[in-house]
Amino acid sequence: MLEWTVYRELNQSRIKCQPIKDFSKRLRPLNPRYADEIQEMLAVSSQSAFDKTWINHYIQLPGTTPIEVDVLAEGADASSCWAFVFEMKNRDEKNLPKMKEAQLFVANVSRVKQWLTQQTGKPVKFICPVYLSAEGFSASVEEWLHEQGVLTTDWAHWER
Fold first, then answer.
1. Is the dihedral angle over the CA atoms 32, 34, 39, 45 positive or is it negative?
2. Which long-range contacts (CB under 8 A, 24 or more apart) does 65-70 make?
3. Which residue among 14, 58, 66, 68 is the one 20 to 30 A from 111 at the CA level?
C-alpha cells in the first residue's frame, strides 16, 4: 500500500517534470550530528526532477543475485544521472524496522549506484535513499540510517 501511494505521487511529479513536492518538509528531523553531510544531498535532490519511476523493481548486477527496490525514480541530464531509492515498511510501532533490515537497505543502495552507472554510462550526481517506516523508527536504527546518509520518514511526515 505504501509503495503504491509513493509511486503514484512520484509518477505525477515525473509527468509534470517537477521535483517531489515539499520533499525536505516530508522527512523526519535529521540527527544534528549528521545533518551537515546530508544537507547538501537534500538540497540538490529537493530540486531534481526525474524521468523514470518504478515500483517493486528488480536490479541485477553481473555475478550477483537480484535485489528488489520498493520504489525507484531515476533522472539524468547530458552529463550525469541520479536516483531516489525508497524502502517501505508498513508495520505498527511494535514491529519497527530492525538494524539488519536497515543494513540490507544501505547495501542495496550501493548496488543501485553501481547499476545506474552501468545502465547510463554517466557519473552519478547523487543517490537519495529514503527509508519510509509507517510508524517510525527506534532511535538507534534511525541514528544509524542518518549516519549512513539515509533520509527517514514516516506516514505522518510524508502525508503532510
1. negative
2. 67/108, 67/111, 67/112, 69/108, 69/112, 70/3
3. 14
Full 3-state SS string of 43-102: HHHCCCCCCEEEEEEEECCCCCCCEEEEEEEEEECCCCEEEEEEEEECCCCCCCCCHHHH
- Given this model, what pLDDT does residue 146 score? 95
* pLDDT bracket for residue 62 (50, 70, 90): confident
Q: Is the model's pLDDT at 1 over the cut of 80?
A: no
Rounded-to-integer distance, Cα 127 and Cα 61, Å:
17
Q: How many CB atoms are closer than 10 A to CB 1?
A: 8
Beta-strand relationship, 124-133 and 151-153? parallel
d(CA 119, CA 92): 37
**Top-level class of domain 2-158:** alpha beta
